[in-house]
């Protein structure tokens, strides 16, 4: 194996995209099925997390969630993988939702 082939293979491995579970998402519709006591516990935990993030100087999270049964799901993952492996942003029209 030549040196240039080894370097190319290392670069390919370095740029291989790996999905990570970085967030927990709770659908508000599902929270409605919790008992009052469970909703109170959840509210308390979320307040604690907010306080801890604020103390660390972390900004509030603003996220987009796309469920896997939506047709855009694969497209969104593809856009993220493209950016993470190439360092470039895909050029598509976007809106702010405002």
In short:
The chain has helices at 3-14, 28-31, 36-56, 73-86. The chain is an all-alpha fold and 98 residues long. The model has no long low-confidence stretch (mean pLDDT 85).
Name the descriptors.
single chain, 98 residues, mainly alpha, 2 domains, 52% helix
What does this structure look like?
The protein has 98 residues and is mainly alpha-helical. It has two domains: 18-61; 64-98, no CATH class. It contains four helices and no strands. It is extended. The N and C termini lie far apart (55 Å). The model has no long low-confidence stretch (mean pLDDT 85).
Termini separation: 55 Å
Largest sheet: none
Q: How many separate structural domains? A: 2
Overall mean pLDDT stands at 85
Compute the gyration radius: what is it? 20 Å
Tally of individual helices? 4
Query: Residue ranges: pLDDT <50 for 5 or more in a row?
Result: none
Order of helices and strands: HHHH
- Report the helical percentage: 40-55%
Structural classification: mainly alpha
- Strand-residue proportion: under 5%
What oligomeric state do the depicted chains represent? single chain
